[in-house]
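User: Show me a protein chain along with its predicted structure.
Assistant: Here is one chain, sequence first, then C-alpha cells.
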Amino acid sequence: MKIAQYPEPSQFEELMKGPKDTKVVMVNLLSFKDQADGGNEGMSGLESYRLYGDQMKKFVESKGGRFIWSGRVDSMVIGESDSDFDMIALVEYPSREAFVEIASSAHVREIGQDRAKGLAGQWLIATTGQEVEGASDDA
C-alpha cells in the first residue's frame, strides 16, 4: 500500500469520471510526521498540519463546502494495514469540479506549505452518497 502527499494526474482524471453536479465527500486518512520540518521545527507534524487545516476549513466553507467530522485513529477493529493513520477527516465539497478547483487554487498552494511540513502522507478517497435500501435516519 502506498500513501502519498499529492495525487497523480491519473487520479484526478479518475475522480472526474464520478457523478457530476452532486456533492462529494472526501475521506482523508492522514499520517503525520513525528516532528515537522521545513521551518516548522519544534512543532509536531500534527501541529504544523493544523496551521494548514484551520485556514483550509475557512477556505472550503467560503466555496460552499463543509467539514463534517474529524477524529483521531485509536485502534483497528477489522482488517489490517501496513500503513498507520493518525487521523480521519470527512470533508464535503459541492461537486468534484469544485474540489479540483479548490485543491488546485493558488491559495491552497500557499497555505499548503504547513501541510507538507507536517504530513507524512495520506489516502484521499472520494465518496458519493447513496440511499441504502431498508435504512432509515433513525438507525
